[in-house]
Fold this sequence. Notes:
Six copies of one chain form a homohexamer. By secondary structure, chain A is an alpha/beta fold.
Amino acid sequence: xxxxxxxxxxxxxxxxxxxxxxxxxxxxxxxxxxxxxxxxxxxxxxxxxxxxxxxxxxxxxxxxxxxxxxxxxxxxxxxxxxxxxxxxxxxxxxxxxxxxxxxxxxxxxxxxxxxxxxxxxxxxxxxxxxxxxxxxxxxxxxxxxxxxxxxxxxxxxxxxxxxxxxxxxxxxxxxxxxxxxxxxxxxxxxxxxxxxxxxxxxxxxxxxxxxxxxxxxxxxxxxxxxxxxxxxxxxxxxxxxxxxxxxxxxxxxxxxxxxxxxxxxxxxxxxxxxxxxxxxxxxxxxxxxxxxxxxxxxxxxxxxxxxxxxxxxxxxxxxxxxxxxxxxxxxxxxxx
Amino acid sequence: xxxxxxxxxxxxxxxxxxxxxxxxxxxxxxxxxxxxxxxxxxxxxxxxxxxxxxxxxxxxxxxxxxxxxxxxxxxxxxxxxxxxxxxxxxxxxxxxxxxxxxxxxxxxxxxxxxxxxxxxxxxxxxxxxxxxxxxxxxxxxxxxxxxxxxxxxxxxxxxxxxxxxxxxxxxxxxxxxxxxxxxxxxxxxxxxxxxxxxxxxxxxxxxxxxxxxxxxxxxxxxxxxxxxxxxxxxxxxxxxxxxxxxxxxxxxxxxxxxxxxxxxxxxxxxxxxxxxxxxxxxxxxxxxxxxxxxxxxxxxxxxxxxxxxxxxxxxxxxxxxxxxxxxxxxxxxxxx
Amino acid sequence: xxxxxxxxxxxxxxxxxxxxxxxxxxxxxxxxxxxxxxxxxxxxxxxxxxxxxxxxxxxxxxxxxxxxxxxxxxxxxxxxxxxxxxxxxxxxxxxxxxxxxxxxxxxxxxxxxxxxxxxxxxxxxxxxxxxxxxxxxxxxxxxxxxxxxxxxxxxxxxxxxxxxxxxxxxxxxxxxxxxxxxxxxxxxxxxxxxxxxxxxxxxxxxxxxxxxxxxxxxxxxxxxxxxxxxxxxxxxxxxxxxxxxxxxxxxxxxxxxxxxxxxxxxxxxxxxxxxxxxxxxxxxxxxxxxxxxxxxxxxxxxxxxxxxxxxxxxxxxxxxxxxxxxxxxxxxxxxx
Amino acid sequence: xxxxxxxxxxxxxxxxxxxxxxxxxxxxxxxxxxxxxxxxxxxxxxxxxxxxxxxxxxxxxxxxxxxxxxxxxxxxxxxxxxxxxxxxxxxxxxxxxxxxxxxxxxxxxxxxxxxxxxxxxxxxxxxxxxxxxxxxxxxxxxxxxxxxxxxxxxxxxxxxxxxxxxxxxxxxxxxxxxxxxxxxxxxxxxxxxxxxxxxxxxxxxxxxxxxxxxxxxxxxxxxxxxxxxxxxxxxxxxxxxxxxxxxxxxxxxxxxxxxxxxxxxxxxxxxxxxxxxxxxxxxxxxxxxxxxxxxxxxxxxxxxxxxxxxxxxxxxxxxxxxxxxxxxxxxxxxxx
Amino acid sequence: xxxxxxxxxxxxxxxxxxxxxxxxxxxxxxxxxxxxxxxxxxxxxxxxxxxxxxxxxxxxxxxxxxxxxxxxxxxxxxxxxxxxxxxxxxxxxxxxxxxxxxxxxxxxxxxxxxxxxxxxxxxxxxxxxxxxxxxxxxxxxxxxxxxxxxxxxxxxxxxxxxxxxxxxxxxxxxxxxxxxxxxxxxxxxxxxxxxxxxxxxxxxxxxxxxxxxxxxxxxxxxxxxxxxxxxxxxxxxxxxxxxxxxxxxxxxxxxxxxxxxxxxxxxxxxxxxxxxxxxxxxxxxxxxxxxxxxxxxxxxxxxxxxxxxxxxxxxxxxxxxxxxxxxxxxxxxxxx
Amino acid sequence: xxxxxxxxxxxxxxxxxxxxxxxxxxxxxxxxxxxxxxxxxxxxxxxxxxxxxxxxxxxxxxxxxxxxxxxxxxxxxxxxxxxxxxxxxxxxxxxxxxxxxxxxxxxxxxxxxxxxxxxxxxxxxxxxxxxxxxxxxxxxxxxxxxxxxxxxxxxxxxxxxxxxxxxxxxxxxxxxxxxxxxxxxxxxxxxxxxxxxxxxxxxxxxxxxxxxxxxxxxxxxxxxxxxxxxxxxxxxxxxxxxxxxxxxxxxxxxxxxxxxxxxxxxxxxxxxxxxxxxxxxxxxxxxxxxxxxxxxxxxxxxxxxxxxxxxxxxxxxxxxxxxxxxxxxxxxxxxx
Lengths: 336, 336, 336, 336, 336, 336
């Protein structure tokens, strides 16, 4: 099993029960998560040696984050302690036609306010196969735009493969700013999670007409790869949102100059879709680390993502065996 | 924003969690609601100045009602305190093929036992644009049949528009009694919520053949209007009950001699359908008070009703902006 | 109403909320159940005089079992107290594509470790119309293979009709062992719950080609009856597992040399499917005891089974009237 | 073990969690209880053959009552089904200095509105050793004042010992009315639960000076016995209310012309004091039926009452063995 | 009843169940509160016309605050909507020897970041009898030190009595800064809540020797009044912290040149002590507005404070009648 | 910080809410714990490098154990996976006079059924400062009596200090068997947790008269040390059980030929006393590893134990800093 470092912000999510609005809620459920932390947990569950690097405040919420990560066997040696606060967000769960609604309260967090790279980088990246980071990190501050690139360069030089998840969030930065930064990052990237919208609006790739055919995504993947030839793997999910309670999910992968796609998973009902994309990324990186065949890789990753939708919380708690059994099984039966 | 008075009974609902039967339940959820109170809350949430008139006992359940109404900004100045008890009902939530089951325990309530109009009517209706009442109130007692008409006459004279929701409940009175009373009420009514069944069985309108076509409802609306020409707006929802967990909902409106219909909302899963009709009425009255276009009015009202089905409790807690966003949005997405 | 004895193991089920995994669960729901106990409760709810015979430990878990059975009016006079422990199992509820997962922890239970028939059999079977037992009991130990046959012989001699539910569980014994034992049991059996898989793999009946047609099941039922001519009633459910949250259910019955089938119930969402088969058996035995027409019997039994899926817990808590109302009703409506 | 019949009203109690007020509560806990029902359950738990006679409505709340009683092995053969409603009451649990507060909503219940004795009395009292009833029953209506006496006369004639619990409730009737009725009842009574306040205010016994000494209660017991010489056993608890969370409890007994008193139980914290008196009565009647020594009887009954305070709900769920172990044990230890 | 304005920050409190630590908690309870908001609710519950002025963000947490205040009848006309976030804090409830622990996360809140007085002050203070503010507000920013004085001057000029609660919080500012600001505020103050520690460390009053005697507090109250002669009423509670679960509470009052003290309330167990001081202040201001006798005033206020400790949440939900009944009652009894 | 290995069984505890009996409970709380696991977690929380060695089944309950330990930073490298089941026990929480009651269901567990030492012992004990085990392990089977001694010998030889907690459980073995085994173990032991009862009944030390004086315990400690001179540290807690809800706790220590005792902690209310002794042991071992002064050591350990009583669950979740702050603080205050 490979050694992996993921780095990013981790937040406290406060959510209500389905059918209860935030403004009347008497209790909130507490979950801890963030894109890179969720990927770290997936990989640790599959048996990899994973470290999550971040910064949390020196209080019991910081301790909660530490315990959350340790619970799944993620190393917290690079979890810095200090700064002012843990970023939080409030989630009013969607149901049926009504989508979820989110209030972000992440400004001023210990991680977002970092001014320099406080980790011992030489030590952090020693023997690491893959370094994973996402587009949320450079979106947190101008300083983090610099720091993210600095990190990636350092990791690349230290021999890591660079995994980057686009994860564009319009509430954090503009398409222009994101595009400019990403174009600086992508020349170092090996594995890139991005889709048609990233290609069109962040990377300025010209549109193509035949929509919603597999060929369409192949085109964008190829175009991205043409622009950034270090990228060897491209992947993303296609989600058909029937309602907040029912989605269809297909995983896609571009690898070895070929397009792969999983079967479609009808996810109904959705228990919690937060972290569904991260579970997919976790599955893909696992496949890469395990040197699986591309089709097996995208099937596994999509199954992992579909399974994530069936449990509360941001992270995917299933083991490699459980995902494999899910893939193999007729679905929905009691196993007795 | 307009000034509105609604008047009627408000009850304590005691319900079980989905999948738990009443006879084994260890806990009941408490909600307070009633048709006219629910309409009052909808309108207050949309920014109108609303008073709910009723009577509750001088104990902490009466206090609970007061706090429930105030929470949403409904004035409780006309909430009389006295009498013997708060009406209650028990709801065993339905699921899938199994419909909900209800035990009414409302006999002898403070409101039902009123013998005269104890409000200062002159004050109650001063400056009021719309007075809303439903067919449940005259069904509570012979005395209330008289009092309801007295109230409506007084309000009409005071310059209010009269809004009346048919709300026929066979457990409370016969079709004959209801029809006779409603025929006395309708000559004063401006806005009337009723459907085909009301037309056929309460108002004695002759049936028409071409069922389940829009033209059918137009016919009944026109016939009602012919009988009671003061009515300028007629409206109701058409609900296709796929199961206790999934309904299709369409709103209909007759206004300016024309029939309007909303898109169909596929409500799946239903979190709580109690109050769905009241949310629709609240939306229509809001449209009238705001002088919206009929199509916008019925679209908004149906959206509000569909949203109500996604939250626990009898009342619709959404603001005008939230309903408008829901109408505009692709449904079911996380907004981040 | 008839007098019935059912006999078997009853266990504590510890299950998690939907969307919560066992390994992270902070609370477990406790339910008590077992095939024969569930049938006993169904029949008691329909007004029959039912005794459940089993053995539970002399502690508060044994007391819990007693209270569970008494709550529904099942006699616990034949509930022996002693031995080492109550069998338990852990259920991680399935949802959508992800099936439920079960951990059995039933070895060494008070019932499974019984070495002889400790009941006063003469008294137990006095005046009893039907004795019901299932294939789980002989699967518990070699000793129980002997004891089960001994019991059935005794009951038969005492004038009881013998009801037997195949209930093959591959985790408990092999197809060979099960088939051998069942072939010893079936010559005494009057009412037999079994399906195509039992016919093929336990009873060695040759397969037939025209699959998924009603004629197919008729064939297997006839073949079974040919082998064991004392059997007068054969029945089972056909379940189409769309997902762990949605199943289609049809009840089938072979009686008076004729095949009967219920309408199909679309069960969506499933609240708890454990005990769904036992609820069907309870309905069939009720029909037999009431001498209902075969079609009414299978319709009632399937409705009872579908209703069971809408409530938490192993047993079917509905009364005969409630099942009848469910059958008669348009589904999914609020009854007010 | 003896055969016992208790008769009275049983109600649904709706209570809030400690620290949550009724007017803001989102959930209520449901418990079923009533003085005579609670005594019935205590005695059934001790192994006696007990029937509880009452009347409940033909709905799922009536069913809930039936299941509650059956759960503890109380026969519901004399539980009539019919009438309008189940009496309810709301309990806002007290804590520390703040006492509990109660809203009664029991008017018009199926039991209270009974107009005649609908049971088959000959059958009801056949072979019954003790018939137990309390002063709440005649307080429910003028009709019930007659019916209670009629019942007691019938039971006495049928050979039952009559057990009567004074249970004076000032919210239900005046001291005058209660005193008059009780003076008609007491000439038939064998076992009487009453205290100093009953003696003074209901039975008009002259006060005595030396307060709070054992001799004081002896005086009142003797005076009562002098007036009603059929009474052979008198008993009650003395409760020192330190706060709503902490009480001291002593049981007292007058028997064989002698005064007995238990040790003092320091009950802290109180989990739920409702039914504490009924648990004491259950213990005394058990002692009588078992022909225990008076000191053992009052010790057992007081222990049972103290134990009741440590569990949620109206009834005492402990077995005879558990009460005996509690009496024998050093308190408060883990038994492992 | 008088007209009152209170002004300050209101926050979301996220707390755990007793015995559950923050770092492992899966759910948080949500309560909304702040010193001045809590006082506003107390006064509204006693029947006064109260407005709470503050600023909350334009999201559903801001809406939650509005609904919380309205629920108790507090006017939210001066509740501004805007800015970045709602201040929050996390509370790990204390129990026994272990005190509560708090994580503040209030920096950058909509209220704290106000740069000018955005209310229409002329309208806000029109006809207002008392304006209440606390020492937390000037502690929020340098700007708020200015704004607080500006507000108080404006209110004073508009004819309000000024009520000021010292509420010194060492985590927000130093004793020097607090003392300097308070010395600027106190010349305008009429009713001042402060104690010995305020006198010593903020106002620089010389210590006196005879500790823990009533005379001691009289001395400090007199010294404060000597320095700031506009102050006509001084008050505070004396709390003996036996443990986090048990406190003794005495209310003290200096008025008409005389010292008054309530009886001691033994509060055990404490359900929630947050807001206990605000409930006391609410009681004192109610007494002033009602022109009660000083002894009655301090007795009522202390009772209200003691009652607050028995309920969850920051605010005191009891009515004037309930507090009066509590004062009159023997404590801890069921009232039936 | 030192390196520590603890070894023993870990079980699933299923407990009810206070005031809810096992036989009626609808939910159980799940906690994982065992003496040696609890000590491991305490030491990990204090910053030590701790490994817990045990064996759990290859299912999600085994996974739950792993996640529980990892959450607190305990290494699970020596957590073997295999065998039949996880030992469980049921706890009905005590309250007031009523003690807790426990049902053990631990027979046949993966750990108890081990037949040989399956760990790589050379690796397990490499660089380990302290090896901790308790008297429960040899009580599990005759095989474990041998294996325990084998383990201790190996560890001793590998250079570990041996820590042994007597932990005598009469339900597992007789005093004779325990005494015989312990006398074989103690010659290897360095740190021994035992008290007067161990001295008298297991080790056969003659009693001494002056009870309940500090000198008494000194006598027994000295006698034990005389018999087993390798023991350098002896310790235990003295607990005065006022009730199941209130205990007084004093820690005692014999070290450097001197007796030390902590202050008395009044623990009221007790939230959960399970694991209180293990928290004390954890504190003592921390003191030893940190080379603290004996008085500081016993004060810290007793504080840690007292704190454990204030939280749910078997393990002590507090950090060294939190225990130190607790020791230093005036108790029971809100820290703001």
